[in-house]
Design goal:
Protein name: RNase H type-1 domain-containing protein
Largest sheet: none
Distance between the termini: 48 Å
Strand content: under 5%
Organism: Gossypium klotzschianum
Shape: extended
Amino acid sequence: SNVEKTRSIHRWCLKYWEVKFRHIQEEANRVADCIAKADGGMMDQFVIFLEPPRYVRELLEYDIRQLLLVTDRSH
């Protein structure tokens, strides 16, 4: 439930760590949004992908192209 998720976040914030939150627009975080939607809300553990899933590869390539354009314009 959302209440339990909120409590879990609160417990993590109470630890002796420096915790910062930053809002990211959905459009700027398409890869994470795609992964979250692909699992249908069933992912309840930390997952490390050794290779990007096929369904996010195009988004990653797009992000790289955008980054290269921005970098190129600044020089």
